[in-house]
Amino acid sequence: MNPKTRNLFVRTASGIVYVALMVAAVDTPWVSVPLALFFAFVGMYEFYKLCNDSSLRTHLIFWMIATGCVLVSFVNYGVFYPNGIPFTTFPLMSIIAAMCLVVPELIDKSEQAMSHVGLGLLGQIWVVVPLSVLFFIWIPDQPALVLAFFVLIWMSDTAAYVFGSLFGKHKLAPNISPGKTWEGFLCSCVFTVGLAIGLSYIPLFRQWAEIPVSWWIVFALIIQVFGLLGDLTESLFKRKAGVKDSGNIIPGHGGVLDRVDSILFAAIPAYLFSQLLL
Q: Whole-prediction pTM value?
């Protein structure tokens, strides 16, 4: 087997496993919880590597503790207390997480304290909170809508790549991601909207979300726009760090952030929009 064929095989196989795990996580807390923990901790480590700052070495363990605190609060709410949550859980976990962002500066007495605390907060907001929202609040109420979210965001990425390769001439963000084009983005918008309209007529999705077709179109456009912003944001961070991939933990696909960059930006806007409807 030549290297190109082998790489395609590895990429396809790992992609199938990734999709299977994500689909299984939609309605199974015993899959979603470990998967979210894995994505959050590995994602934060990859974010730390992208910072490319050796002075942050002391901060990593505290960032991981903060990640665990944020995840615990959402696990309690979304999985173990679906009908309510002890009042002290969120404030307590938030205080511990905030302390974990500040304590390393008290230890190191760094002259870049504000920058380091800001980076830690950015990592929590960019990586951990969206995963927590998606996996631990949405799942118990609307599993089919989460599945629709995944289908739309995966297919929009695929459509943008395919149509961009076929028709792309005008660069969307040449200084950040030279491969993305306006033609790919606009064609992907049309494709994703059409797919959303199709999903709205499938009984599986209508069973959980009796919303008009027009709202499905808005839902698809939110996913499309914010998914693109997530992709461009990670590309910007990787370009600044001088790396091609955020990691290499997923064979043939790179790092965790390379796989969930669109999801991270689209999860919270899509969730908030869904809550306005349901």
A: 0.86
